[in-house]
Amino acid sequence: MVVALTRTMWVDVRDIEGGEVAVEQDSRGDAGGGAGEYAAEDTADRSVGTLELFFDLVFVYAMSQVTILMLADISWTGFGRGLLALAVVWWAWVCYAWLTNTSDHAGPAHRLLIFLAMAAMLVAAVALPQAFGGRALVFGLAFLAVRLIHVALLALDVRGEADVGAPALRLVPSLLGGPVLLVIAAFVGTPGRELLWIVAVVIGFSGPVVIGTAGWGVAPGYFVERHGQIIIIALGEAIVQVGAGAEHSLGRLSVVTAVLFAVLIAAGLWWSYFGYLRGGAERRLRGTRNGERARLARDSYSYLHLPLVAGVVFFALGVNEAVAGADEPLPLLPAVAMAGGVALFFAGDVAYRWRDHHQLAVDRLLAALGAAAVIPVAGVAPALAALAGLMLICLFQTSWELWRHPVIGPVGSS
What we know:
By secondary structure, the protein is an all-alpha fold. Helix content is about 75%, strand content about 0%.
C-alpha cells in the first residue's frame, strides 16, 4: 500500500513538472552541436523501479526512528544524537541511490543482496533509538553489514569496467571506515561514543570529495526522481508526528486547529520543493557534461538534500510537541526544532537551487528568515500561534510564487 501510494504521488508530481518544463528556457541548446557528449549516458536513463521503492521502505522506518530517538530525550544531547543518527541513515541511503542509479539489479544475485541489505538496515533501524545506549553494538554491527553488502554490490557492478572500477575501489576505505568506528563506539562511553560517531560521519561524507567522482555515471531522470521520493518520505514522517501529537487530545478545538495548520505547513514545504521551480532539475543534469554531471549530482543531491530532509525531521519533532500542547508555549528545544526545521528546509532549498542553477531564490531566503524569527515567539506564545505564524509564512511564499510564476532553469555550466 505504501509503495502504491508513493508511486501514485510521484506520478502526479511528474505530471506537474512536465507542464512546467514548457515555460522554461533551455540554455543547453539541444538542437546545436555536442549532443553526442550526452547521448550515451542519457539513453541508459530510466525511472525508479519497484525494487527501489521496496528498498526505501526500510528508510521510511529508519527516519521515523530518528524522530523517536529525539523524542525520547528532548535535550540538546538528544538533539545532537538525532542529528548524527540522521546523517548516518542519510548517507547509507545516498550510497545505495548512487549504486542503483545506473544499474537495474535485475539478476538474482543482485536482488538477493538488496534484500539482505534491507534486513540488515531494518535491524539497525529497530536498534536506532538506543544506538547511543544499550543497543549500540547491535546498531553498529547491523550498519556494518549494510555497508559490506553495498561494497559487494559495488564490486559486482564494476567488474570489467576499468574506468569505473578503480574510482570505486578507492572509495572502499571511506565506505567501511565509518561503520567500523560505529562498532568500536559501542565499547566506549559518553562523550567518546559521540566523538567516534562524528568522525564516522566525517569519513563517510568526505569520501566523494577527497576521492572525487571521476568515472561515476548519473542517470538524470532517475536521480531527480529518487531524491524527490526521499523528500516525500520525510514529509510523510512529519504528517505521522502531527497525528501522533493529536492522538490523545483530538477533542479540543485548539488541537484540531493545530493539526490543520501543521498540515498546511507541510504542504507549503511540499510546494517549495515540487512547485514551479522544480521543472528544470532533470534538464539541468541532462544538459551537463558527464564529468561535471557527477559533481553536480554529488553537491546538489547527496549533500544539499540533507538539510532539506533534516529540516523536515526537525519540524516533525517540534510539531509533535506543538500539536499535543497547542495551548501552551513550547520549551526551547521543540521551538527551535519546529520553527528552525522549517527555516532549515527553506535555506536548504535556496542552497540546492543556487548550486543547481546558480540563481538565488529570494522568496525562499525570506521565508527561511521569517521562520527563524518564529523561534522566540514559540517560546512565549501558545504553540498554536507559532504554528499559525509558520503557516502564514508558507502561505505568503506559495502565493507569491503563484502570482509571479518565477522561473529557475538550466544554466550553461556547473
